[in-house]
């Protein structure tokens, strides 16, 4: 398996990929000049009909990597899907991702006659049933709702020629495996299958063995390469002081598009309420919100009308929002992979970003695990008003980073770098580069 290609110089162009003209035109209009590594490594194989096991996160360009070959296949082997049928099926864990992927199909397929439908829970059945009734070329779906509609006879899967399992590790985490198995059982075995996953735990490898046929294996963006570009700091703080700390940080205007992660939906709501009380425009994003409320929250955040989005892990999975200046872990996640995923919401498209993590007494173990997995120690930011020296003592660094040697203390343990509050929230000590004044104003 090829690895760590994300940061290598990109060879070739879209012209060398043998894409049909309508796709080249759409891609050019998106101002994509060079294929990303996952695109250049997979598109030729996918156009040749091979199966694929892709280890890649969002942000690598994986959606175009699968959408372009699918669109080309559908357009060049034109045939009807039949009533309630579909020719390509994309399964993805969340509604937001389903909508994002469907939008990509619309954009890349704008010069082709390709019909697609989006199917996800928490929204009316009627519209989705209507869209599916006449048959479509592509369905983008979350597994639960698709299985519901399949069970009720509103969708037929016996004409599916291409299947994509996107964010497979997250679908497994969310308990979708039985649904996925049922869906796959309804699809002809003669098909092209692509499985994407940010990580490749054993279960995913097993799944790929049962669903894929002699796949091409491609891996890009090992977690550490994303992590390298992000300025990460940890703030040791008593649990009850976390809100006050967040509020004091937000007095700094250069934190102008801020994604805050909480562990629970309830915590997200509470944080939003408190922020609104102090006059900060904030929105919550989590699974208990109606679809309309989630779309509205995302719109407000994307457009800058809300400065802060408070989200849970699952809801924020794969979110592609440009210009997030700061990710704040109000609570640390207990899985290092979630941490890597969360902080990767900043530093999109090659930009740099800042990740600030609040760590209370109970979270020191999570921090150590994160440092072990990412092989990097997180700089302590200690001169904020709520710093807890006692917690800092417990969270003392144990990681032994290979990539960046840390200054050593007497006693031989690698010391965390400790930084004061001056310029603390930002890499540049001020407004992050690449953001216009207007964008800042809009965000306020
Ligand atoms: P994805 O990993 O599919 O979520 O894509 C992440 C972002 O990269 C999206 O905003 C895409 O529009 C963008 N993107 C995808 N392919 C390219 C490319 N070849 N050049 C520039 N941007 C791209």
Would you kindly provide a brief summary of this structure?
By secondary structure, this protein is an alpha/beta fold. Helices cover 38% and strands 16% of the residues.
* CATH homology superfamily name of the largest domain: P-loop containing nucleotide triphosphate hydrolases
Reported CATH architecture of the largest domain: 3-Layer(aba) Sandwich
What fraction of residues sit in β-strands?
Answer: 15-25%
At the first level of CATH, the class of the largest domain is: Alpha Beta
Number of DSSP strand runs: 15
Keywords:
eight-stranded parallel beta sheet, disordered N terminus, 16% strand, binds adenosine monophosphate, 38% helix, Rossmann fold, seven-stranded parallel beta sheet
